Structures are given as structure tokens and as C-alpha cells.
């Protein structure tokens, strides 16, 4: 009897090829598109974004082409509560959130797995560039994809053991070029569709405008201060800034300057030189262990502090039940509160947490 798998289809080439590969491997494949857009916002729909109405149409066309069933499930309420509210609240606190990480854990995987179990599926699947393995210690973990350029394990570190146990990631062994080549040969109609690089619910990438227009938040101006607390100018509201930012500051300092820290309690944005943005230590909480059960003694690992970070060697230890200390061998640029630190042993994700 064929194993049944429910695959999340975003209307893009990656999830479309993933569905194709699963069918070729002999699975009973059911396509599901998660409708997560909020009704009647200025950001609801653009032609090229995933998760909007056009994405649903594209996913449906691909499913018809592959001759697999396709369903749409309404997750707007869950997405609003778990992702959008989290996103806006973090910015108001002077932090820089990563909504994709939260969406993966609490919306995509949680709801897709729930739906899959309801219809008797054995697995769920996605079009992420990552691989899943079971380690010698019995635990499941995500493993870096075959292509470091597209590797998406950073955004998957919060997945649970139960979620990983029932997940397939069929494109993790391929490069993006290979995926497009497979799509072309199979004549999948979204073979040349562009990737979406922005946050899906903010197509123009203007986070501050989104927060102001969709919440009752008042964006108050405040002081730019230097690292010695001297006032050097006026900022337009803390939600406009993130640690490491250089452009858009509106300061004439005679040299490049950068955001070093954001102080929501005093409504101040701290400005410094590039060297002031580097640090060799961070703390993180909300830890999720993946490849290991816990950290009982300090261990040497490689860590990424943002999606685009190549990773740096460091020593990590737990200083209490849910707070991790990380000391890097070399200073790391723009360690940003609200972002994730993700720990690796080679290609294996050990877990991660939220930077404090």
C-alpha cells in the first residue's frame, strides 16, 4: 500500500518539484496550499508573492498537471496570532524578529501535520532546501542541504522531534539549478517563476509602514545617541531601525556610522563606528534542542546569528534551564536581539534560540 504524504504547495518551483519527486518515488501525494493572508490589508496580494491568491492558483494548476488532489486550508487566524502579532510586537520592543522561523514551527508544520493526520497521511512534506536525518542517539535533526547557497536549515531549528519524524524534504539533495532543470524536463508550468525574497506579508519590505498602517502603534521620534550617550540627532521611531544598519539614518557624521543598539525603554537608537557593531558574546533563550537533548557541559560548535551568516566557531553553555551563553572565537558582526542563533555540528543542526 502506498504511503500517503501531504505536501505544502506554495505555487513556487521548489514545492512543485518536491510534489513531482514524491509522486515519482511512489507516494500517494496530496497537495495543500495554506491560505495565510489577512483580509483587506494593503499588503494582501502581489503577482509574484507566495501565499497570496495567485499562489493558490499556481499551486492548483501544478497539482492538476501532476494529477494529484489539491486542497486549500484557511490559516489566516493562526497566521495572524502566531506570526503577524509576534512580528509587530517584537519591532515595538526594539527587536528584529524572524517571522519565517515562527511560521514554520507554529503554522506551517503544526497545521499541516494536524491536517495530514486528519486525512490519514503518513507524512507531510515541503519544498525546503534541507535534509532530515535520524542520528545515532535516536534524535531527528535537519541537515544542511546539498547547496550552501540555498540552505534553509537556519529557519527550521524550532521544529520538534514529532514534526521531524513525520516530515519529508525531497529537494534537499539538489541545487536550485537542478530543481529548475527537473521542472523544465517535467514541463512544470512554474519552472521559471521567480523566488520571493521578501517577507510574504510585506511585499514592499517596508516593515515600519506595515506596522503603522495595520496596528494602532504610534511611531514616536527620539534621540540618536553615540556610545557615550551624547545626543547626536533625532530618529523617526525605533521600528525603523535594526542593529548593524547603516543606510537610512539621516545623520551627517563625516564617516559611515551604524546602529549599535536600540533602547526601547528610553526610545533611543545608539550609533557607533563599524567596530562597535562587533561582539564576541551573546545570550539566547527560548531554546529548542534538535540533534542533541540538551547541553549539560560546554561544547564547541559552529553558530549562525542570521540567515546569511556563514557561521562562526564558538563555545556554548547553558547558564540556566532556558538561557544559553555563546562565546565566539572571533568577534561577530551585528548580533541582533530577536534574531535566532542556530548551532551546528558540521552539517547537523543541534538546535538554537532567540538572541537576547
Identify the notable features of this structure and list them briefly:
356 residues; alpha/beta; six-stranded antiparallel barrel; five-stranded parallel sheet; 7 helices; 24% helix; globular
Can you describe this structure?
With 356 residues, the chain is an alpha/beta fold. 24% of the residues lie in helices and 30% in strands. It has seven helices and 17 strands. The strands form four sheets. The chain has a six-stranded antiparallel β-barrel with strand order 12-15-14-13-16-17. Helix 1 (13-24) packs across helix 6 and helix 3 (76-92) packs antiparallel against helix 4. The chain is globular. The termini are far apart. The relative contact order is 0.13. Mean pLDDT is 93; it is low at 40-50.
Could you state the order of secondary-structure elements as H and E? EHEHEHHEEEHEHHEEEEEEEEEE
Instruction: Give the percentage of residues in beta strands.
Output: 25-35%
Determine the number of helices (DSSP H or I, runs of at least 4 residues): 7
Q: CA-to-CA gap between the ends?
A: 49 Å
User: Helical content, roughly?
Assistant: 10-25%
Indicate the topology.
Elements: E1 4-8, H1 13-24, E2 28-35, H2 53-66, E3 70-74, H3 76-92, H4 99-118, E4 123-125, E5 130-134, E6 140-144, H5 161-165, E7 167-168, H6 176-185, H7 207-214, E8 222-226, E9 231-235, E10 258-263, E11 268-272, E12 278-289, E13 299-304, E14 312-320, E15 323-333, E16 340-345, E17 348-355
Parallel strand pairs: 1-2, 1-4, 2-3, 4-7, 8-11
Antiparallel strand pairs: 5-6, 8-9, 10-11, 12-15, 12-17, 13-14, 13-16, 14-15, 16-17
Helix pairs in contact: 1-2, 1-6, 3-4
